[in-house]
């Protein structure tokens, strides 16, 4: 592609795919991020847009082959996070860039009714998208966040809650180790409104599945309109 070397083309496409599969940005935000990350001449901006569009169309085409239950793990995770919140465990998806930042930030976000936290960060999410399987980071809020007994109690609440909604769980009882959800599939169905009729859009946006949205938990709408 004129103005963009082959290595940047591959990197742009890989970055676009990850961000689209996260379900965290619309198309305009994606292009802005790509332009900032891979500076090109003004005349070559259309090239970045074309590359991002090719990735979007590829993902939408692949989604057409999904079985009906492909997003079931996502719905279960939303239910589990809702239940954890009711139990006093602040729960967030795709939270912060890493565990070093995330552990401090989520404790600061916790309210008086919270006794613990559960989250996975962006790197965890990207790893899940790439090869399936999710890890949950957990701990205690408040001044006793180093209390191993309390950390174990919070971890057990997480394990029980995940199992109650039907998710597979693996944990070795060590409060300092992450809880694993083996084989977890992060799936967001992408839509391109510019390629859909208004009737189709209304049907999707009005679908009962939208009741499952967990955007306040950091989980995107399961049917996500990129544009």
Give a structural overview.
The chain has helices at 6-22, 27-37, 45-63, 72-86, 99-109, 122-131, 148-164, 198-205, and strands spanning 89-92, 116-119, 134-140, 179-181, 189-191, 223-225. The mean pLDDT is 92. Helix 1 (6-22) packs across helix 3, helix 2 (27-37) crosses helix 3 and helix 4 crosses helix 7 (148-164). With 227 residues, it is of the alpha/beta class. The strands form two sheets. The protein has a four-stranded mixed sheet with strand order 1-2-3-4, with helices on both faces. The protein is built from eight helices and six strands. The chain has two domains: 6-63; 72-181. The two termini are 24 Å apart. Residues 7-190 form the DUF6891 domain. It holds the Pfam family DUF6891.
Notable traits:
4-stranded mixed beta sheet; globular; alpha/beta; 227 residues
Brief synopsis:
By secondary structure, this protein is an alpha/beta fold. The protein is 48% helix and 11% strand.
Secondary-structure element pattern, one letter each: HHHHEHEHEHEEHE
Instruction: Supply the helix-strand structural class.
Output: alpha/beta
* Helix percent band: 40-55%
Tell me what portion of residues adopts beta-strand conformation.
5-15%
Q: Total domains, how many?
A: 2
How would you sum up the major sheet?
A: 4 strands, mixed
Topology:
Blueprint: H1 6-22, H2 27-37, H3 45-63, H4 72-86, E1 89-92, H5 99-109, E2 116-119, H6 122-131, E3 134-140, H7 148-164, E4 179-181, E5 189-191, H8 198-205, E6 223-225
Parallel strand pairs: 1-2, 5-6
Antiparallel strand pairs: 2-3, 3-4
């Amino acid at each position: 592609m004129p103005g963009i070397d082959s290595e940047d083309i591959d990197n742009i496409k890989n970055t676009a795919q990850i961000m689209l599969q996260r379900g965290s940005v619309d198309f305009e935000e994606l292009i802005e991020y790509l332009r900032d990350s891979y500076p090109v001449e003004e005349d070559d901006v259309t090239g970045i847009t074309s590359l991002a569009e090719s990735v979007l169309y590829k993902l939408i085409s692949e989604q057409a082959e999904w079985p009906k239950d492909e997003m079931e793990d996502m719905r279960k995770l939303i239910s589990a996070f809702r239940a954890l919140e009711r139990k006093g465990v602040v729960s967030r998806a795709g939270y912060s860039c890493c565990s070093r930042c995330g552990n401090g930030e989520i404790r600061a976000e916790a309210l008086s009714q919270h006794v613990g936290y559960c989250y996975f960060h962006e790197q965890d999410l990207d790893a899940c998208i790439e090869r399936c399987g999710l890890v949950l980071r957990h701990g205690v809020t408040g001044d006793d966040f180093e209390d191993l007994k309390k950390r174990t109690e919070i971890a057990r609440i997480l394990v029980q809650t995940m199992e109650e909604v039907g998710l597979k769980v693996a944990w070795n009882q060590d409060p300092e180790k992450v809880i694993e959800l083996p084989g977890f599939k992060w799936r967001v169905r992408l839509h391109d409104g510019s390629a859909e009729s208004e009737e189709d859009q209304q049907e999707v946006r009005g679908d009962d599945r939208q009741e499952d949205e967990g955007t306040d938990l950091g989980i995107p709408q399961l049917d996500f309109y990129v544009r």
